Amino acid sequence: MTGATGRAGAALDLASRAWSVPLAGYAALALLAVAPLVAVLLVRRRWMVVRVRGGSMAPALHDGDVVLARRWTGRSKRHGEVSSPGRGDVVVLHRPSGAAIPAGAVAAPPLRMTAPPPSATASGRWLIKRVVAVAGDLLPPGIPPGRAPAGVVPPGMVVVLGDSAGFDSRLFGPVPLDSIQATVVRSLSPGSVPASRPT
């Protein structure tokens, strides 16, 4: 009887080993299939690619240029990220609510694997501008003092201007830091001037 029991136990052990090899293989294949998706999601949380529309950032950026921008989380130093965008940084920000946008003064939404609906591209939700003054700085000439009656940029606000004339803080005043979505780190278009201040 022990011989039959021993043979049955050996057969069960052999069968379990036979199943464990394919299961391990399937698990490895599943991991290989999911890993690229996870990597893409992590990259998209940290980076965005934006196409410039309009000429208000010339000569640094021109209409049609594509830029790489690091999303700004608003948190303090982490992974070498500064606590907030500083003077000279080129930023991607939400258009101030209620502000009318003249034609050619906005950035297109970020590039995606599939094209965004035409209404999203035409809506002009975002601007690309350079930060010229931060909280505590004197308001630059020509900035309406509406939200900064003391002539100083209020806490939690920045002043953004185009490198050329355009739709910027000269029309809508200082903007909240939380309207900033990303800081431009590099132009991906050939022949462009670096967009942000040197680090």
SSE order and pairing:
Layout: H1 2-46, E1 47-52, E2 66-71, E3 90-94, E4 107-110, H2 118-122, E5 126-134, E6 157-161, H3 169-172, E7 175-176, E8 180-187
Can you describe this structure?
The protein has 199 residues and is α+β, with helices and mostly antiparallel strands. The protein has a single domain (48-187), classed as Umud Fragment, subunit A, CATH 2.10.109. Helices cover 27% and strands 23% of the residues. The chain contains three helices and eight strands, in the order H-E-E-E-E-H-E-E-H-E-E. It has helices at 2-46, 118-122, 169-172, and strands at 47-52, 66-71, 90-94, 107-110, 126-134, 157-161, 175-176, 180-187. An eight-stranded antiparallel β-sheet has the order 4-1-2-8-3-5-6-7. The longest helix has 45 residues, at 2-46.
In short:
With about 200 residues, the protein is of the alpha+beta class. About 25% of the residues lie in helices and about 25% in strands.
Total number of strands: 8
Overall form: elongated
Would you state the CATH class? Answer: Mainly Beta
CATH superfamily: Umud Fragment, subunit A
Second CATH tier, the architecture = Ribbon
Keywords:
single chain; 199 residues; alpha+beta; Umud Fragment, subunit A; eight-stranded antiparallel beta sheet; 3 helices; 27% helix; disordered C terminus
